[in-house]
Amino acid sequence: MEHGPLKGVVVLDLSRAIAGPFCTMVLGDLGADVIKIELPETGDETRRWGPPFVEECGAAYVGFNRNKRSVAIDLHADEGRQQILGLAAHADVVVENFRPGTMKRFGIDESVLKATNPELIYCAISGYGQHGPLAKHGAMDLIIQAMSGLMSLNGDPDGRPVKAAVPVADLLGGFTAAFSVLGALLGRARGMKSDRMLDISMLDVLITMLAQPIVAYQMSGVEPKRHGNAHELMSPYTSFRTQTRDIVVSLANQKRWHQLCSIDEFSALGTNTRYQTQESRNEHRALLGDDLQRILVLQPAEYWIERFLALGLPAAPVNSVPEILADPHLTQRQTLIDLEYPPGSGNRVAVPGMPWRDVSSRMPVRNPPTLGQHTEEVFAQFGLTQPQQSGLLID
C-alpha cells in the first residue's frame, strides 16, 4: 500500500526515548502523519545514546523514528504551549510518555488539549500508569523488567536475575499503545466517544505477558524459578552444545519425540522407560538433557540441523546478530528496509520493518528527521507562528 490505512490521520508525538517513539513509528508506518515535537538544540535524548553514532545521532533514534516530521518547540515557554495547542487543534491523536503530572506542569495536559479539540485521542505511556501508589515514580525499561517479576525469571537457574537483551517493557508498551490508538480510531469512526485517556502502563503490559507463571504459581503455590533456556512445562526444550556451536531444540509433543528417536543416534532413548511420555520426560529433564548432550556434542551443528529439519523437528542454530542479518530468509521476506540518515547524506542503514508489511509501506515514506527539520514546513501548513529557539532541558 502506498500510503497505508492511516493516511490522513495526524499524530502529535510529544514522546521521547523508546516506548512513545516506537508507538508513533508504528502509526507512521501505517500511513499516519506523525509530527514529532523535540526540544530545540537538544531533541530526543536517544539522539545522544551511543556510540555508535551517525552524524552525532545514536542507533536507537535512527531505529525508531522513521516516517515522522521533526518540529522544534520549547515546551517550557508560553509561546511553545500556544504552538502545541495550535497543532493539537488539527491533530487526531496525541501520544506522550512523560512522568504523570509533567504535561499538567507544561499546561498542555489532556483536559487542556481536549478543550481545544474534543475529538482528540490522548494516549499516555508511563512506567506505572496514571494512577496508583507507584504512578508518580520514574521508570525506564530496566526498572519495569525488575518490578514486574520478569527479570526474576530470566537467567541461569543458579545465576543472578538478568534483564532481556532488548527493552521489552518499552517495546511491548509501545506496541500496546499503538494497538490502543488503532482501537480508539476505529471506535471514533463508528461514533464512539473518545472521552477517556488511553492510560498505558508498561508494568501492566509485562504483567499481561507473565500470565503463564502467574497462573501456575496460583495453581501450585510454588514460586516460579529461572530455567535458563529451558521450559518448565516441557522437555527437551532448550539449548545444547554441539561440536561447533550451540543449537536449540524444541520437542513439544509425542510426535516430535518419536521423530527424534527415529534418528539412529537417538534410537536407544526411545526405549528408555523414563522418557515415554511428555510428563515423564519433564520429570527426568536433567537426566534427559545429559543423555542428549552426550550425543549432540559428537557432531557439528550443521549435521544436526540438517537431520532435524529433514524430519520437521523445530531446531535452529543460536545465531549472532551478523549471522541472522546475512540469512537469505530475511532478504526474501524483505524483513529489513533501507533508511538514509541524515536525509540526503547518502549514509544508508538497514532497519527492521514492521511485521505486518502487507498493510504498511515496504519502504519508509520519510527517513528519520534531523532535529527541527520540518519546523517551518509544519508551522506554515497549520498557520502557526515560528518558535523561538531555546536549549532548556525537559525533566
Question: What brief labels describe this structure?
Answer:
395 residues, alpha/beta, Rossmann fold, formyl-coa transferase, domain 3, 16 helices
Short synopsis of the structure:
It is an enzyme of class 2 (transferase). The chain is α/β, with parallel strands linked by helices. It is 36% helix and 14% strand.
What can you tell me about this protein's structure?
This protein has helices at residues 19-29, 59-64, 78-88, 102-106, 110-116, 141-148, 168-189, 202-209, 211-220, 254-261, 278-283, 285-296, 301-310, 321-325, 328-333, 375-382, and strands at residues 10-13, 33-38, 53-54, 57-58, 68-72, 93-96, 121-126, 198-201, 237-241, 246-250, 315-317, 336-340, 348-352. By secondary structure, it is α/β, with parallel strands linked by helices. The chain folds into 2 domains: 10-209 and 331-382, 3-Layer(aba) Sandwich (Rossmann fold); 246-317, formyl-coa transferase, domain 3, CATH 3.30.1540.10. A 6-stranded parallel beta sheet has the order 5-2-1-6-7-8, sandwiched between helices. Strands 9-10-11 form a 3-stranded antiparallel beta sheet, covered by helices on one side. A two-stranded antiparallel ribbon has the order 3-4. The chain starts with 9 loop residues before the first strand and ends in a 13-residue tail after the last helix.
